[in-house]
Here is the input.
Amino acid sequence: MKIKLKYIITTAAFIGVALLILLAKSISNSDFISSDSFRILLGLNIFFICSLIILIAVQIFRLLQSVKKEITGSRLTLRLVMSFALMGIVPVLIVYLVSVNFLTKSIESWFDVKVESALEGGLTLGQKTIDILMSDIELKGKSIAYSIGNADIEQRNNILTDLRAKFGIQDAVIFDQDSKIIELSSEKNNLIPLIPDVRDLERGGEGFFGRIEEVTGEEIYLKAFIPIISKNLMSKKLILQLSQPIPPSISNLALSVESVYDEYQQLTYSRNSLKIIYILTLTLVLLLALLSSVAASFVISRKFSSPLAMLADATRQISKGNYKKIISEQGKDEIGMLIGSFNSMTSQLEEATKNSEKDRERVEIARTFLETILAHLTTGVIVIDDKKIIQLNNVSASKMLQNKENKMNNINIEKIITNNSLFEPLFKFVETYIDNNKKNKIEISKEFRLKKDKKERTVMLQITPLRDKKNTQYVLVIDDISEVTQAQRHSAWGEIARRLAHEIKNPLTPIQLSAERIQHKFSDKLSKEDSIILERSTKVIVNQVNALKIMVNEFAEYARPPKIEKDAIRIDNLVDEVIELYEIDKIITIQKDKNIPIIYADQNKLRQVIINLIENSQDALKEIKNPIIKIFIRKKVGEVELIIEDNGIGIPDEIIERIFEPYVTSKKTGTGLGLAIVYKIIEEHDGKIKIERINTSGTRVIIKLKSGER
Amino acid sequence: MHYSKKISIILIIIIGALLITDSLHDTEENEILIKDVVINSTEGLKKINFNQEINFNPIVMKAIDRGIPLSFKVTLRVVEISDIWPNKTRLNKVGYYQIEYKSLRKVYKIRDINGNSYEYKYIDEAVQKILKVENFEFTFINDYENYELWLNVALDRKKLPKPLQVNYFDTTWYMTSNKSIHKL
Here is the structure.
């Protein structure tokens, strides 16, 4: 059962106010509410005050607990509650103290001494007036009693009537001691006199006795009892009773003064009670007002702090990245507007975040795309800042620079130079470029032929500066163009070979035929000695022409247009077939995997390759004591690997990088076109060939050909 | 569960209100002693005479002199006593007697339980008069043996001035007798 606090407080306040109004009414108007009702009202008021105290205590406890648990908005609520409570308590307390003081003094001022004296004077005046009237009746009564006492019995009634009328007395009755009416005279003819109290008659028998009687609270009668002393001593003792109303003008005034005096006296007597009740009521009002204001301060504070707490919470949520936090509407005041603006801001922020996220995703995709491209580029890409620190690089760059880690971020290029001296000229150039071109945006390209120890690489460097307002970064694109350069050289050699074949081969046959014809025609005509010289010279010409023919044919082979006829062949079978030609030497061993896959290749060309390589190995083994040629045929994924290695003299380091170029050879004899032709054939088969020195001695040639592809 | 909780809270509120109200109830003191009760019966008509001792302390005497009328309420109940069933009230009768000072005439006016007025010059005489309650009449036919007459006298606070009525903290005006029980 969770009833909202504001409803409890509102209800309690309304009931309390209603009870207080009734309480105040019950004090001021005795007819309105009885004292029992007053007691119930008082009890209910005290009960409500106690309830409010408990309610406030519970609220304070809960609030302190919230502050302890650091619930958002609780501290603000506490401050607001204290502020509102103080704002309520201080003025109400001041008003209360002033009111109590004013009330006490006001009540005291009602009982002024002068007023009391005046009232007492008025009452005394009334009493004295009545006493004077009583004295007057006494005198008149005594005169009547004397006259009647000295008169005869028969004359009593006349004398009584005459004197009563003469003195202006309303009623005159003569009683004997037994309360029996002896004579009677009255202004009213139909008077039936009341029998007086026996004690009054007794007192009247002893002497004058006066009594003031109040009739119906409006009239005052003076009654006088006077003994009648008769001249006849033996006669009965008689008492004269005179009844005379006080004139209404006097009696009304006297009764009025008495009434006011009595009320004043009662009021004077009960003034302490009056003070207590008024102060009690005032205190109840104070407590109810105070407690209601304190209780209301909780409601108001929560009303104020609740949206702010929600705002704080929402701000916290937003700081954590939750932009979907929307605060419910809180009216149309400033806080409502603030919340509206906040919600609008949150929506915009969410929208912006979504856009930013999309942009970030796009950038990420682009970055991944770029990274993928960079990663798969054979070209090395390095980004360095103007302090020559590497900011970014791709895998190819790290491989090119033989760095262990793929990422070279935050490494100074000086360190790269130290680790890899091959690239020293390149990076020295980069350093010089950066130092000299900090303010320019010159893009530069330069080819480097790098040579260190046995390694030789041709690389193309392109530097592109990227400048923004603060920093400059440089993109280094390093392209290893060694193979391209080699291919260009091969192409150039091919062109030379074609021209040589064309220009040299054609005149060779006429030269040979002409030389043979000269010998045939003139050998018989010349002396023996001259004939011998002619024959020798002609033979030299023919031999040299033949040699030139062989050379030109090899050039023609090297320069021929790529024309291969591919068939499905087993390279292991082809190798076996070739080896049979060299069985006499017994220096060739072969190791091959099982189930070597079929390759599609030109069988004759490949045979020429194998023969060339074996013959090269044989040439290298001529001066070796234990010559051996090892052939390995291995099955690889998607390709077949053919390795031919020997333990010969090997290829010098100076030429190994260019060994596939024409006329690059370590042999004393030969055209220097054998390996160039091998290279060309493998290239025409989309294969790869590599030649390397074996650590101890010897050479290893590795050929890789694609399997199962036509 | 929901309703039981609701009911319990309402009960707590009611009990709390009753306790507070009850704490403000008359803290009655037995300052009137009823004695010498005599019941005269003539067929159905019965008359009660009894004397009282009333502790008129100086505060009360002063109040009388200040013109505050003191009215005493005599409550008479005839109750049928049952050993099994709750007692039943067969008759309930209330009578008043009063003492009042008349400042103009300087007399103490007494009105007895039968409505008769008496005036005394001195307060002692007036007080002596009101201490005796005579001929308080009621009609009841005693057809069953087990009847009791319960008699109680108390100062009627409702006749006091309002400030004295509502000043629950002043116990002077809580004058009442014990319940005087007599076989009828």
